[in-house]
Write a structure and sequence with these properties.
Length: 243
């Protein structure tokens, strides 16, 4: 598949590491810095032994009319699946998309995900993951599947609502339910086909008798039959869904 002119310019900039014509420096962190940041944030943002590779620095027109960038990284997870990790040009870690296809190319305003299939001419086909100038969308569709952007909680905290401890360390308020119960990552005990497993995850919603939880390891949301949960989990769900 032929890259667009913008993609080729993006690739050239990555390789030679120069400044833009307007003089705005491209501040892309290296892979070790990315991994360090994710590890410090923890939770669903860091997975042990994920392999991070730089995909591209995507150029766009900034608010001041000068060139700006989003720095894109592809992470391969040991247990399967991928993440598209996104930084701005400050550089600040913005968050990630969990995807089933590897980010392998790019064009103006989009990351191209390798579908693993080819067209009738033998050319690789791709799914588009759009990255608009205004930043990653909270939800996109990839091959028809809704995919949420998992934001960096350190950037998402409302500055006016952030308290500070005696040492000046920001304390990010926890998400709570209508009943005041804290909604956070916890260990769930699930029994399926006679086997019991423990999953660190966060409650998302309950629908048609199924409890949807987000896995801390890969950020994916999956339904679990309410009957498969432990008594403690059932009580927890009852508390956080109480009006």
């Amino acid at each position: 598949m032929k890259k667009t002119l913008t993609a080729l310019l993006c690739l050239t900039t990555v390789l030679i590491g120069t400044t833009t014509q307007a003089g705005t420096k491209k501040n892309d962190p290296n892979k070790k810095e990315v991994e360090k940041t994710l590890k410090e944030i923890g939770g669903e943002h860091y997975v042990e032994r994920m392999k991070i590779s730089s995909l591209c620095s995507m150029k766009f027109d900034g608010a001041d009319g000068e060139d700006d960038y989003y720095h894109i990284y592809n992470a391969s997870l040991k247990e399967g699946g991928y993440r598209i990790i996104i930084y701005n040009n400050k550089p600040e870690y913005l968050g990630f998309y969990s995807v089933d296809f590897e980010g392998s190319d790019y064009e103006e305003g989009a990351i191209l995900l390798d579908s693993g299939e080819s067209d009738e001419d033998g050319n690789t086909t791709y799914f588009n993951l759009p990255i608009p100038d205004k930043g990653p969308a909270s939800k996109v569709r990839i091959d028809g599947t809704p995919t949420s952007f998992v934001k960096n909680p350190q950037l998402e905290a409302d500055k006016s609502a952030v308290a500070t401890s005696g040492g000046g360390i920001p304390v990010v308020p926890k998400e709570t339910s209508a009943s005041g119960e804290v909604i956070d990552y916890r260990d769930w005990t699930i029994t399926m086909k006679g086997k019991q497993i423990t999953v660190n995850a966060k409650f998302e919603k309950i629908e048609k008798g199924k409890v949807y939880i987000k896995n801390a390891k890969n950020g994916k949301v999956a339904p679990v039959p309410g009957s498969a949960l432990s008594d403690e989990d059932k009580e927890y769900v009852k508390r956080i869904t109480a009006k």
